Amino acid sequence: MTVSDWTGVIDQLADMGTADVQFIGGEPTLYPHLRKLITHAHGAGLAVEVFSNLTHVRPELWETFKECGVKLATSYYSATPQEHDKVTNLRGSHRKTRANIKKALDLGLQLRGGIVSVQAGQRVHEAQRDLAALGVPEVGADRTRAFGRASRGAQPTINDLCGHCAQGKGAIGPNGDVWPCVLSRFLTTGNVRETPIAEVWAGARMSDVRRELEAVHDGRGAQACTPPQFLPMCGPCQPCPPMVGHCDPREADSPPAKATISAPA
Description:
Residues 166-215 form the 4Fe4S-binding SPASM domain. This protein is an alpha/beta fold.
């Protein structure tokens, strides 16, 4: 996707009545044209969220975040630097993320945190309390879901999605592929470089995928899901780190789902 591809899709989304756009990755702050896309989306009347690990934010990005009222979201794994850095596989990431959380809040930016339980014995409750002490008002939590590197070679399945995919939200990949959500990259429904996003959204393939999702998740999806990878419309029911291994209260009496241990991006 070129910059003009992205700005064109943003315009199409605005014409469809889309309310929010989220820039995610990988790490979106590494994309050299992020400022331009944020400014374009803001000018088109869309609210903007950037999901970042907040380890490195260029000064000019902070300016754009402030000017455009950007909302931020970040993953957080532990109040302990060693444990957090072990998950991210990046020495010093805890210190940098924590410092930029403080900076974002000092700038008056809206910020939410997401805690993902990825390792046995991970002190997720302490992580939640640490974020709350920093002043983060919204903290979601989730187990690791077996997609991408977290799958450890396993084939992705609809069962491991939350069930809210393609219900008021979708995702567009770096080559233009359209997915029901950012985690369901194995369910491609079209490509915006070939077909307008409105046609993909209303197309036969998207309808088929919605039916597949409804069949697996009883047409309801999880009654409360808090995966921080998703848009804020999936917002957390409680700041409850996932000690039980799942986040669907319909399954509260069931054995916890087995979490895959992996170092996420």
